[in-house]
């Protein structure tokens, strides 16, 4: 499991698990450290994708289903043990939804809560009109990254680091651009869904996420641009929100 999941704080007696999916180009460290920020009732699993970190020698994922299949093959026994929730930002929001949808369809399991951030719903027309950024030249791609923010300027100015980083990010962007999800005829999930987003980010079609579940649906906007969640105060709000919903889900689960 260690190949695919990073868990800084192992808590076998935790009553619930939070599984976090990285943003495009991201590794597992950012969310893995959340394990130190949650209380002892929550164990945090951070997904580690191929082509980076300890998996740097492996080829990148070709499509979202490859990511889903690998995560489920590793985590399915764990997910059957106790309640779990999913969180993903941007690219991670799409991969965590795809994983949740496949779990529900193929195994009759779903998160007790789905937290998505920083992107339009998978079936939204807003996604269909987005440009294919993976096809940009490296120079244009770096300009876009600078505009989006979230990556320290000293990294973007370091040509050696950029040479290592850009292929990872572009590979993930290709996965996003290939991912097509039809508008659902009925709800595919029953769990509650919470959307987070940055107030200064490019507007996303968050309302469309409501089409995917029969459960409670909420949106919470926080100050900042695309990587608003890296701000410590916003991170605290997100963690407190997830904790509150996990505690509520625990009580419902035990009824």
What topology emerges from the helices and strands here?
Elements: E1 5-6, E2 16-21, H1 29-32, E3 42-47, H2 64-79, E4 84-89, H3 91-107, E5 113-117, H4 125-128, H5 138-148, H6 153-156, H7 159-178, E6 193-198, E7 217-222, H8 232-254
Parallel strand pairs: 2-3, 2-4, 4-5, 5-6, 6-7
Antiparallel strand pairs: 1-3
Helix pairs in contact: 2-3
Domain Thioesterase: 17-244
Protein name: oleoyl-[acyl-carrier-protein] hydrolase
Family: Belongs to the thioesterase family.
What features would you describe in this structure?
This is oleoyl-[acyl-carrier-protein] hydrolase. It is an enzyme of class 3 (hydrolase). Belongs to the thioesterase family. Its EC number is 3.1.2.14. InterPro entries: AB_hydrolase_fold, TEII, Thioesterase. It is a single chain. The chain is of the alpha/beta class. The chain contains 8 helices and 7 strands. The longest helix has 23 residues. The relative contact order is 0.15.
- The count of strands amounts to 7
Contiguous uncertain segments of 5+ residues: none
Oligomer: single chain
Mean pLDDT, to the nearest integer, reads 91
Taking the sheet with the most strands, its summary is: 7 strands, mixed
How would you sum up this structure in a few lines?
The chain is α/β, with parallel strands linked by helices and 255 residues long. The protein has 8 helices and 7 strands, in the order ββαβαβαβααααββα. A 7-stranded mixed β-sheet has the order 1-3-2-4-5-6-7, with helices on both faces.
List keywords for this structure.
alpha/beta, 255 residues, 39% helix, single chain, seven-stranded mixed beta sheet
């Amino acid at each position: 499991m260690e190949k695919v999941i990073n868990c800084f704080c192992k808590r076998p007696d935790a009553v619930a698990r939070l599984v976090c999916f990285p943003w495009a180009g991201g590794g597992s460290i950012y969310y893995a450290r959340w394990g130190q920020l949650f209380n002892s009732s929550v164990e945090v699993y951070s997904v580690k994708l191929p082509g980076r970190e300890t998996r740097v020698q492996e080829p990148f994922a070709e499509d979202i289903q490859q990511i889903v299949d690998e995560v489920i093959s590793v985590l399915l026994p764990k997910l059957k043990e106790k309640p779990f929730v999913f969180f993903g930002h941007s690219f991670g929001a799409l991969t965590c939804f795809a994983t949740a949808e496949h779990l529900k369809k193929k195994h009759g399991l779903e998160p007790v809560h789905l937290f998505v951030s920083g992107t339009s719903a998978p079936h939204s027309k807003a996604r269909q009109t987005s440009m294919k950024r993976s096809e940009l030249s490296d120079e244009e791609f770096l300009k876009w990254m600078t505009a989006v923010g979230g990556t320290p300027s000293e990294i973007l100015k370091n040509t050696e680091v950029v040479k290592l980083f850009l292929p990872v990010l572009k590979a993930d962007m290709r996965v996003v651009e290939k991912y097509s999800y039809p508008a659902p005829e009925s709800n595919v999930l029953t769990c509650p869904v919470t959307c987070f987003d940055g107030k200064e980010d490019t507007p996303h079609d968050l309302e469309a996420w409501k089409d995917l579940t029969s459960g409670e649906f909420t949106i919470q906007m926080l100050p900042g641009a695309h990587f608003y969640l890296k701000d410590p105060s916003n991170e605290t709000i997100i963690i407190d929100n997830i904790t509150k919903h996990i505690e509520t889900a625990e009580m419902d689960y035990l009824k």
